[in-house]
Amino acid sequence: MNHAHGQSTRAIHGADVADPHGAPHAPIYNTTTFAFPSTEALLDVVEGRRPGALYTRYGLNPTTFALEQTMAAVEGAEAALAFCSGMAAEAALFTAHGRDGIVCLGDAYGGTLELLGDQLPQLGIETTFLLAPDLDRLEAALRAGARLVFFETPANPTLEIIDIAAVAELAHRHDALVAVDSTFASPVNQRPLELGADVVVHSATKFLGGHSDVTAGFLLGGADLIAPTAPWRKNLGTAIAPEPAALLSRSLRTLTVRVRRQNATAQAVAEAMDADPRVARVLYPGLTGFPGHDLAARQMDGFGAILTIDVAGDAASATRVADRLDLFHLAPSLGGTESLATQPVTTTHHGLGAAERARRGISDTMIRLSIGLEDADDLIADLTRALDEVDPERKAPVGTRAG
Ligand code: PLP
Questions:
Q1: Sheet harboring 79-83: ordered strands across?
Q2: How confident is the model at residue 19 (pLDDT cuts 50, 70, 90)?
């Protein structure tokens, strides 16, 4: 594969496929094990003298190899490992590289916060949680010995943007690794390795899969950092299975067109919501008034398809708006072809508790929107109608209303 090719080309031709029947894409090797002509040939693979298929749960399956090769090419990484979920990828990262202490910077997916805060301490893996701008306290935690800095950017659900290059520079001065969960951006909009991060994490369940029909995850980075996570994947049994791996390879081929269209639609929806008096605040990196806009414009190629609206009123008003949406499904995920809406307080951040949500600026009136591939006007009309039904007195000014 020629790495001088553009990202769309790499997403389609990123894997070496030498199929004897001429299939243009890697076939699904729906098999748990692979046979060898001799014990010598088997030992060559078992003892690492020759790369090759061996056992699917080890991740040593040609369908998995093709996926990992393509994804490494798309992200611009030396190595990639595919997992059965985003959380499985994170678990392998934290167990392989987090044992000297982790710093989690800023907001993160609720499941990540639970894993770091509740389960991993039971194994002696401790995490310091810091709000994002707190670089002085980050330095103190690094001086105290933490060796892995983990963060999401854009973050869930506030869309907060963290300066990847600045954190990497600080962390590297203290010999610490930087891992970025780049799920919200996808490699189309952001490539953290180019900005100095050491490892990239993706929940491939989101934009990479893109059709809400695959659960999967990735770790990407230098081969020396990805290799130590492989035994955790192998023995915790968290490698991806062949069928989801093939589905994901299929999805990667359309990643760039999907994400670019989703970026454009999200920008239109964000601008319409920003002009609506029933919405107190719109959190979207593409809006010039958003606090992280300038940084996002520097470190991202597109602003993404996730935005969070803060409905004017109370939690019940936000719930009424969410319940009246028609095209937007009420579901706690993102990145698919269909637009989704979720109130973080009822789903992704339900387990955090009110005090921690307040500390992180996650309000009860927030609705997170994942913009799909529908027509922008239809999505804006759906949101506007729901707002009209809940608060008919204060309609949006003429000219900002769709449909
Ligand atoms: N990272 C982010 C930013 C997420 O939003 C999610 C899930 O919502 C995860 C990680 C976990 O991914 P998965 O559900 O594939 O385990």
A1: 79-83, 217-221, 199-203, 177-181, 148-152, 102-105, 127-130
A2: confident
